[in-house]
Amino acid sequence: MLVALTLGTIHAQTPAPAGVGSWYTATTYVVKPGMMEEFRALVIKELNPAAKKGGLQQSQVWRFATGNPDRVLRITLHGSLADRDGPTAAEKGMGAEAYRAYLKKRIALVTATNAYIGRQRLDMGYTVAGSPAPRLAERYVVQIAQGRNAEYLKYVQAFLAAAKKTGHQRAAGQIVFGPNAGTFVSNTYYASWADLEKGRPPDRSMSASELAAFTQLNSNGLITVVSRDVMTYDAEMSMAPPAASR
Fold it and tell me: What is the dihedral of CA 231, 234, 237, 239, to 10 degrees?
């Protein structure tokens, strides 16, 4: 999201529809058991410096704490999809030969790679510019019943109203190309596991009648949960945008 699934937004080269932000690529790497530190070192020492040299402004890297904990999610924003027509930022920064060597090192450390291209849903998120990097995220991937996206937006807006009261930020996007195309992805940020244990924003800030009305918005099979995970933010593997580093 993730995040938008990131803390910042790159201005697109062509106007985006209302409520829609930048394109992004989300790549999940399944690291071989026992090789996580080697993978982290490869990202921190080789990938990130080269990507920065090649023009990448920011990335977010998350590590899954649920499901397979050897999964690493890396999210990068695009000014437009035309960014993908040429070499990646890392390849530009390294040069073709060094990039091939990097890929060989990465292949030796991972068992699988899965990527999708999505678009930020600014109308489904609430983030505060200049906020410190998040520590923990509850990540939902959901499928919405056909023809009922407007109902889902109403549900999300009620969630955001609650999140603003509790001080929790939420980034969101929609998968456009790749597995589960059309589904929505959201990251709700928490300060710690203890914070997460206290419940989601609606559970904390709504009265019993308000919570009942909120729950009713998700009626008759509106939302189908594809996955629900908890991830921890890896600041060292990430390339923070300037606003997040202040």
Answer: 100
pLDDT tens for each residue of 169-182? 999 999 999 999 99
Phi, psi (deg, nearest 5) at residue 121: -110, 90
pLDDT band at 241 (very low <50, low <70, confident <90, very high): low
pLDDT at 133: 83
Closest CA to 4 of 178, 90, 89, 128: 128
Domain segments of the chain: what residues? 20-238
Fold classification of 20-238 is: Alpha-Beta Plaits (3.30.70)
Which is it for the CA torsion 88, 67, 141, 200, positive or negative? negative
> Model's pTM, two decimal places?
0.89
Segment 15-39, tens digit of pLDDT? 566 688 899 999 999 999 999 999 9
Secondary structure string (H, E, C) spanning the chain:
CCCCCCCCCCCCCCCCCCCEEEEEEEEEEEECCCCHHHHHHHHHHHHHHHHHHCCCCCEEEEEECCCCCCEEEEEEEECCHHHHHCCCHHHHHHCHHHHHHHHHHHHHHEEEEEEEEEEEEHHHCECCCCCCCCCEEEEEEEEECCCCHHHHHHHHHHHHHHHHHHCCCEEEEEEEECCCCCCEEEEEEECCHHHHHCCCHHHHHCCHHHHHHHHHHCCCCCEEEEEEEEEEECCCCCECCHHHHC
| Exposure of 52 in the CB half-sphere (CA atoms within 13 A) | 14
Q: Is the dihedral of CA 144, 149, 155, 159 positive or negative?
A: positive
The residue that leads in pLDDT, 244 or 135, is: 135
